[in-house]
Write a structure and sequence with these properties.
single chain, 262 residues, 62% helix, two-stranded antiparallel ribbon, 2% strand
């Protein structure tokens, strides 16, 4: 369940927000349901906890633009969730911080969430040495989406990811490369390690991952490794599954890398 069933008198006021599977697809609660849940928990019995607040924010983030559709505005709810989490940032671990930052990025860097974003980035600096590759990759992706080139934090993320590189999967590698490239931050040690680890996992990359990884290497003109040519060979096989934007990114990357090698 995405949310616990509402108990007591508030049960009659809310629709239980649950993630249901319909025809093989996860169905999120509506924005109205999330707003009602937060209103009851915060203004009513006041038993909203950190995990519940993060799940609510994550749900609204996944809904994205759809979160604004309905009879309610989510501005006040976002402010409530942000204020609640800001007061508890010292209790947040790396997974929670990355989840919050990803949700903020998905919601488009809204004014109501600027405070919690700053707090999470600040606390993340302390959590980096203990974070997993997935949490670091997600955090880096969020920083890129938010256009926050936090140089010292990115340096720490790069250093940590190099140290735990064998634990990074294809998605982590793609996210890290794309994030650093988008922010224009080139860490040679990190990209060398991304190239090494990606060469072991060539069959695990989706068309989107292949296109983004090649785009990232081209964006930073990283041509030291043989990986780009290996990725191109894999991309040729997967080409029928590429979407138009992925093909565009792939062609641009190939042209840029070719010019960089001349």
């Amino acid at each position: 369940n995405l949310f616990a069933m509402c108990q007591g008198e508030s049960a009659g006021l809310l629709v239980a927000c649950q993630t249901r599977t319909v025809k093989g697809k996860s169905e999120l609660p509506t924005a109205d349901q999330v707003v009602a849940y937060v209103d009851a928990r915060v203004a009513g019995n006041g038993d909203l906890d950190i995990a519940g607040a993060i799940r609510c924010l994550s749900c609204l983030g996944k809904l994205g633009n759809e979160a604004e559709v309905g009879t309610r505005t989510i501005d006040h709810t976002l402010s409530r969730l942000a204020d609640f989490l800001i007061r508890r940032t010292s209790q947040l671990h790396a997974r929670a911080l990355s989840s919050i930052l990803v949700s903020v990025a998905r919601l488009g860097n809204r004014r109501e969430l600027s405070g919690i974003a700053r707090c999470c980035i600040h606390v993340l600096k302390v959590q980096v040495p203990h974070a997993s590759g997935q949490d670091l990759a997600n955090s880096a992706w969020a920083l890129a989406k938010l256009a926050r080139a936090e140089v010292r934090t990115l340096e720490d993320i790069a250093c940590r990811c190099v140290a735990i590189s064998s634990s990074l999967n294809a998605k982590d590698l793609t996210q890290l490369a794309w994030s650093f490239a988008t922010l224009g931050e080139f860490d040679r040690a990190l990209f060398r390690e991304i190239a090494v680890q990606a060469s072991y996992q060539l069959g695990a990359f989706s068309p989107h991952g292949l296109a983004n990884l090649l785009w990232s290497f081209a964006r930073l003109q990283f041509v030291e490794a043989q990986l780009p040519s290996q990725l191109v060979n894999v991309a040729k096989v997967a080409l029928p599954r590429f979407r138009p934007q992925e093909i565009t990114n792939l062609l641009w990357a190939l042209g840029t890398l070719s010019a960089a090698c001349e």
